[in-house]
Amino acid sequence: MKSAGFTLLELLIATALLAMLTVVLFGGVRFGTRVWETAESSAAGTDRVLAAQATLSNEIAAAYPLFIRVSATDAHAAFEGGPDRLTFLAPAKSPRGALEWVTIGTVTQNGVRSLAMWTALELSPDSRPRLAATLLKGVRSLDIDYFGAYSPRDPPAWRRDWSGAVTIPSLVRVRATLVDGHTVWPELTVATHVSVDQGCVYDQLTHYCQGRI
């Protein structure tokens, strides 16, 4: 009469197969977890980029084309743009009716480079800009271009800088590369006000010209 049960060889084979299945199973779980974490991190990074772009778009689109007369022979639009920094006038959040200088650029804090925005009231006794918001952390590079007619004699074209012109650019293009290789910055192009009233003396309370030069 044959005795019932498993032989030692059969138990060893079954144990080995169970160990192999366990390794495959947990390997699949670890892989799925890494894929999930990567996708979640990428989605969160994309949301942060879109939020930063929305803020930039709103601020740049609100650029006020104030014409500044320094002297009888020196006059220009209140807009100073470089390849990685931009300053312009826009309606202030507070107090109502005022204008504020808005500066967009990068700042490095604790070894981390970030896209940031500074503001300063135009007529404030303390005109030093204050850091209003850190828009996006982990920025490797920032590139800003400007499109428009730099002077009445020039045809519209893309430029790397915009300073001392008689008008503001009609388009501002913002490109950036990020430290996080999984997150992409979509190219952002914002339309601004396209004309400057060179004879207007702006009244900040009424938002109309109080006189003309």
> How much beta, percentage-wise?
35-45%
- Give the N-to-C terminal Cα separation: 120 Å
Task: Please tell me how large the radius of gyration is.
Answer: 29 Å
The low-pLDDT segments are: none
The residue fraction in helices comes out at 25-40%
How many independent structural domains? 1
Structure description:
The chain contains 1 helix and 13 strands, in the order H-E-E-E-E-E-E-E-E-E-E-E-E-E. Strand 3 and strand 4 form a beta hairpin. It has one domain. A 5-stranded antiparallel β-sheet has the order 3-4-5-6-7, with helices on one face. Strands 9-8-10-11 form a 4-stranded antiparallel β-sheet, covered by helices on one side. The N and C termini lie far apart (120 Å). The mean pLDDT is 80. It has 213 residues and is of the alpha+beta class.
In short:
This protein has one helix spanning 8-61; strands spanning 67-69, 75-77, 79-81, 86-91, 99-109, 112-121, 130-137, 139-148, 157-159, 171-178, 188-191, 200-203, 208-212.
